[in-house]
Amino acid sequence: RPCTPPRIRRGSASHRACLIARYNFIYAKERLEAECILRRYVCNLETVQRIVYIACVESFRAAKMAFWRVKINVKDTLGICFRGGPTSLEVAVLDYIACHKDLYDVCCSVHEVVCCMNRNPKLPCPGELDFVVISNLIREVCCLAYSMQTLIPPLDIAYGVDGECFNRNMYYRSFDSDFAAPFVAYHVWPPLVEDGTVIVKGEVVTKK
């Protein structure tokens, strides 16, 4: 791509708000749609929710890796003709990536996530279920996670561990939780964080 001047970073606050709203919308819509699709193949609700959670986590991981690769290439390209300090170059790179979303090959990330999940020993084997059936959820989360990396600071998710102590500042309890239990049995949806601060709470199931 020719070296063109990047746009000045404007409206970052509104862009951040839109991305956070999109994260909430995916939780409310695409997540439930993915669960409905998976229930055709898996009877156990816990397994279905674990699959969706892992899909979200792996989608963020794949998108961040793809963003890192794109960022290196763009930085090398802009660095040739850019006149400014390292800080302004970093901002220019993020602005350029945010304006040229076609640099991201989301199909490659979706394929990577599906393959990773098919190899996950905690999930049903590929012979029982091909996780390509929830590729729409994976695609939406990948695109969102990629866009979140263009913010300063970037938005990310917090990774949970089964058996951890329930943290009311990070999670809501699912409706079928044991509300007296102090430990997380499994995770339904990850919390969204910004520079270590929880922006949107996740969801977990607690059991004794």
Number of helices: 6
Structural class based on helices, strands and sheet pairing: mainly alpha
Q: Indicate the percent of residues in helices.
A: 40-55%
Provide the β-strand percentage band: 5-15%
Rg over C-alpha atoms, rounded to the nearest angstrom: 19 Å
Mean pLDDT metric: 90
The number of E-state strands comes to 6
Main location: cytoplasm
Keywords: Coiled coil, Cytoplasm, Lipid-binding, Membrane, Mitochondrion, Mitochondrion outer membrane
Subcellular location: Cytoplasm; Mitochondrion matrix; Mitochondrion outer membrane
GO molecular function: lipid binding
List keywords for this structure.
cytoplasm; 208 residues; 6 strands; lipid binding; mainly alpha; three-stranded antiparallel beta sheet; disordered N terminus; three-stranded mixed beta sheet; 6 helices; membrane
Q: Can you give a write-up of this model?
A:
- With 208 residues, the chain is mainly α.
- The protein has 2 domains: 11-152, no CATH class; 158-207, no CATH class.
- Helix content is 50%, strand content 12%.
- It is built from 6 helices and 6 strands.
- It has helices at 12-28, 30-38, 45-81, 86-99, 106-118, 135-148, and strands at residues 155-157, 171-173, 184-189, 192-194, 197-200, 202-206.
- Strands 1-4-5 form a 3-stranded antiparallel beta sheet. A 3-stranded mixed beta sheet has the order 2-6-3.
- A hairpin with a 2-residue loop joins β4 and β5 (197-200).
- 30% of the residues are buried.
